[in-house]
Amino acid sequence: MAGTVDTYRKVIALTGPLLPLVSFLARLPVAMSQFGSVLLVAQTSGSLAAAGIVGGTLSAGQVVCGPLLGRLADRRGQRPVVLAAAAVNALATGALVTGALAGLGTVPLAALGAVTGASVPLIGPLARARSVALAHRTKADEGVVAAVHSLEGTLDEVSFVIGPALVGLAALVAHPAVALGGAAALVACFGAAYALHPTATVTAGQPPARAGKPRRGRRHGVVYAVRGSLALQGAMFGACQAGIAALTARSGAPGQAGVVYAAMGVASAGVGLALGALPARYGLCLRWRAATCAALVLSVPLLFADSLWSLYAVVTVLGAAYAPHLITAFALTERVVAPARLAESMAFAASSLVAGQAAALAVSGRLAEWYGPAGAFAVAVGAAAACLTIALATRVPATRTHSPAVPAGAPIRTPALPGDAAAYAGR
Q1: Domain for residue 412, yes or no?
Q2: Which of the pair, 262 or 82, is modelled with greater confidence?
Q3: Whether 183 and 247 share a structural domain
Q4: Do 160 and 257 share a domain, yes or no?
Q5: Cα dihedral sign for 28, 346, 426, 140?
Q6: Who's near 247: CB < 8 A, 6+ residues apart?
Q7: What is the pLDDT of residue 208?
């Protein structure tokens, strides 16, 4: 425990205590927008089909435009890109709320949903890229870099537990419009705060000529393999959502679906936080294969869950396998891509996750209607098996394949120690 605390103290010494908090609050709108848009359109239009279309276009906008925003952040720097995206996203979210309340048709609402998704400011992937750049600037060891990935992964997990819970609470107490209005306010305020934080100077961007073209070979193959693995992880999420919804409805407690899914997220976040203390001798290849193997083994019991309590038990234990896979996948991405393309690659990885989740949710929802909860859960088990296959078949470099970049003109500090936190105090 003491080692874990000391490791994370070093990470906070790099970022300052304010950056993780600001980035967490700026991530919440991402977790709130899709669920909130579905609830809003379903309530205002009375059509679940229309709600699904709007939610789908929102996801599609994020999948298509997320990597483009990441590329812009690599080229122009995070500050201007996040400021612009946050402003557009807040306006688009507000327009979606206004349009839904005014009774607009499905097509214009879907267009607003697409703009909302396309302008998501990608705080999670960009925060990873920024924190890793801070670690490399101080020549921190690989243990600290691994802890950075663990912390960022945990913040993502917690945001995707709290975000939908806030939407559900707002919808229950007031109206889904309140939830989306809150998301617009959060992205406007904390997206801007993240962009203006002093650490943005380490991600000031590089012109295209300096970024160069990615080299082909093993490194290129690893990137594609990781993206495929993350898409399958997203498929597991989508299948679990559909299966949980089906089983809780069959048990006569549909309101428990969100709580069950949250239990999985809490378990995942807890294990992800503990992963930061794992010794560096357990390399990324071993972690990847162990995490995907665990996901397969722990997902099989989903096929036999037939009651609410057995579902709680199986899903909570399964959550322990999710964060290690996500954290390792993003760490592998950071290891094998050039620093000048890190934000774009992180955005591609995040978009792969969203795309897999959206596709699996649509397919497994239909399977749940035909074959019951086990039909949806079978998709999760199949995706886990495919994940393990990719991890076993991919040759992962044993060491970093590039030299970490140091921003031009940036001073090199000595490796961060707990006492160095004062250097970023108040930022």
Answers
A1: no
A2: 82
A3: no
A4: no
A5: positive
A6: 305, 306, 308, 311, 373
A7: 56
- Round to whole Å and give the CA distance between 413 and 103: 56
Token reading at 246:
């089906």
Nearest to 60 by CA among 405, 347, 422, 358: 358
> Given the structure tokens 């993206």, which residue do they identify?
227
**Distance in angstroms (rounded) separating the CA atoms of residues 356 and 118:** 17
pLDDT of residue 327: 92
Query: Does residue 321 sit in the same domain as residue 266?
Result: yes
Question: Any idea what the CATH number is for the domain that residue 346 is in?
Answer: 1.20.1250.20
Query: Are residue 189 and residue 140 in the same domain, yes or no?
Result: yes
Q: Mean pLDDT lowest for which of 158-167, 211-220, 410-419?
A: 410-419
Lowest pLDDT segment from 59-63, 164-168, 414-418: 414-418
Would you place residue 398 in the very low, low, confident or very high pLDDT band (cuts 50, 70, 90)?
low
**CB neighbour class for 214 (10 Å; exposed up to 12, middle 13-18, buried from 19):** middle
pLDDT score, position 401: 58
Q: Is residue 426 part of a domain?
A: no
> Which amino acid appears at position 94 of this protein?
G
The values of phi and psi at residue 404, to 5°, are -55, 135
The Cα angle at residue 257 between residues 252 and 258, in degrees rounded to 5: 145
Query: pLDDT tens digits, residue range 285-298?
Result: 999 999 999 999 99
Domain-terminating residue out of 203, 232, 250: 203
d(CA 90, CA 120): 9
Global pTM value: 0.83
Selection from 120, 105, 125 nearest residue 61 by Cα: 120
Alpha carbons within 13 angstroms on the beta-carbon side of residue 70 total 28
Q: For residue 55, what are the domain limits?
A: 1-203
